[in-house]
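hey all, quick one before standup. I had two proteins in the batch that finished overnight and I want to keep them in one place so we stop losing track of which output belongs to which input. First protein below, input sequence then structure tokens straight from the run.
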Amino acid sequence: MPRPLKIDFVSDVSCPWCIIGLRGLEEALARAEGAVDARITFQPFELNPQMAPEGENIGEHIAKKYGSTPEQSAANRQMIRDRAAALGFAMNGTADSRIYNTFDAHRLLHWAEIEGKQAALKHALFTAYFTDQQDPSNHDVLVAAAEKAGLEGAAAREILVSGRYAEEVRAAEQLWQSRGISSVPAIVIEDKWLISGGQPPEAFEQALREIAAQLA
């Protein structure tokens, strides 16, 4: 009988390693279907909580944050594109792409968990940002993603306009930071084990099987 596993996936929708990690984890769970039965909850983390509404050029942002040269940034983007493509996900970013504030996206994800459609919305948001190069702070983009995930568009827009779930998202962000999470993706299993980064499916599968065996 598969071992139930509680998995908290701490991430941001503008984090390329987060979608790579998620696709790797999902593939690993499919491979380990007979051994584990996971319930994934997506927890909020903002890479750039102070980002201006208009966003920032990704190349300029990376250069300022990490000191990367344009050549290094281009090589890194290609490596990330290749990793994502190997997992069936298309990243279409260029040197002209922008990075945005994602707080409203996290508010919608909080609501989507209540509605039982959080995973679908998470995937829709990753696709909107990385594949379609859309602005995940734009309310029209967020409503469209919610509808794609099977959520009510009018309800999504009302949440965005009203500011609902802001306190809950802030509290969750602070909780995970207080637990030592300072980079994402951070995959926390049963509140005890931490797997960091966009690991390949093989690494996730091995870890999941070992954890399930320890809990058995």
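OK second protein, same deal, sequence then tokens:
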Amino acid sequence: MPPLFAKNGFLPLGRYSVSFDEAESMLVSAPEFEDSATRTRLWDGLHDYLDPFLTLEDTYVDDLGGIPLIHSLWLGGSFVSAKLDPANIDATLLIDTRAERAVRGKPGSKWLTTAFQSRSRMREKFGVSPLRIGYQPVPHVFEPERFTPDERTYFTERGVWDDWWQRCRLPNTDDRSPSEDSASPARGYLEVRL
């Protein structure tokens, strides 16, 4: 389990690997969230959001050859903080592009597009604000001159969202956009194993 929330209300810096059950224990059923009006509903929404991915994995197990659609799930934002009633769950899904290609065009696979088309629609329907990274297993990581365009995109997207989930918006300011002043890492986030 990751360390407890720091004085700023967030996890200490870093990415912490936890199981789905550990994340639930920490972010939903922990004693400090007993009076939360939103956490259980949002966690149930995350279950509902993830279910079509898991159904695709179960349906096309032979086509996938043991490769999961969701390589990993990153959770950040106010849900991964001491805030009693966060408004939504900020999630980054690392979708394995090999698995995605294996099920594309098959019944039910439209979800792989729908799930990321409109963050506001997913937030409204499930309470989840999702982002997608196309996961690429890259064996020649120390030879960037060999990277394909897809591999470069993967590393860029992974780096962007790793950076973002460690930032905090500046307090007492009207501009809540990312800025140079808010670029320093100030919190941690979770990598949830499914």
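Flagging for whoever picks this up: The radius of gyration is 17 Å. The first strand starts at residue 14 and ends at 19.
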